[in-house]
């Protein structure tokens, strides 16, 4: 994606508009100016023509029209619980831009809900989902979403100013169009500028008081890991009358479990590539040895049944109760629960420690922010107002929008204090003590994260405090860029995409079976059968595809650094 090229195209469009347009339509989807242009009347020489509002790469397009409009916004995350318009920040943004939002969140299985929406062909105005979701390509192939660059060319050239050219290029498809824009994304140049400040979200955690009570054991080896889980279970059998859960993980889904794939592989510092070739980390001996360690943990009664069936809401409740001893998890996903524990007893919080490691005890290589981001947002072909939609997206991408969403309204949630824009003391106190209450009252600090740019908002972010600071500090020195390994999996209805989806489902079924095997011999049988099946079903073909994408990514990233 070449920003200059799109700027030239948009300026050509502007010149054409000035030459031929003397009045502006006030209709919905084709409203270029967003305001009526009242022509002078021949019978009234005193009548004055209202000039057409000009589109400009230098001026935010949302300012052209701030009349009330409500967009439906689908979030493919069943755990998202916040509502737009309840808090001070979203109310301020609606008052400022005229845009109100109606969030649509799946009540149960995200894939089922999203597939139903796609099958109906009737998608909400905006769609936000995980960057690696295969449904993105399905929506593009089905022409269910609109090219953001074309919307920007026609309705808001400021989009190219507010957006990062490297990220637009990264998400450019073979047809030359960009359909999705990421949040929490960092390009190679971002790493060059901010890299020494980056921290990872991936952590190995233990409950502080329990860990110290059993002697702060070394949990880096399989033997030390199992012994620590056993000691915690023996010494702390129950927590407030409920059974202790020795080890917590992300929820199991139909395609597997994050904790037992990339997270633990990063803790083990297993390389993603060797000598320019992608490395199948799932077959690494260190990884297999730790899966067998977890199998042994289950045999020893150290993996609760809850771990296999709980979804995020149940996990959040148990984290807030302090029922897990150890966890392989994401630190940001438990902020509200940590606040609860810290308020009750600062020693009952979770802290990051060195956990599962490879035989050489190499430092973990945790994923830092990548250019693909965390989630991406798309605009539906059914969007009720194309102009207002792309202009609102531009606003959210911009520094102005990021500041509004992060700090909220000046005088309400923040002010200029000691020469710096920052949260008011009472607001910061609530943020650090009760995240859920903060979200509902103020709605700032990434409550609405769909287009957050963490490189921009870092300038207003308060210094980390406990119980969060310790976790962040633990990841420093372990955080690396892994952008070249992102978005390698084939998606959509391509031959490789269909194979990859089948393989993912197979893994999702196999992983729990491996952990629940009654012996290492049974584990080996299940493992070997799985490897044979994936070979038969086309894993080599998928790997060839991924190698090609990896090499493309490496070239792209090299270009961005020039």
UniProtKB/TrEMBL annotation:
The keyword Signal applies. The keyword Heme does not apply. This is ABC transporter substrate-binding protein. Keywords: Signal. InterPro entries: Bact_solute-bd_prot1. It comes from the Bacteria. Residues 1-24 form the signal peptide.
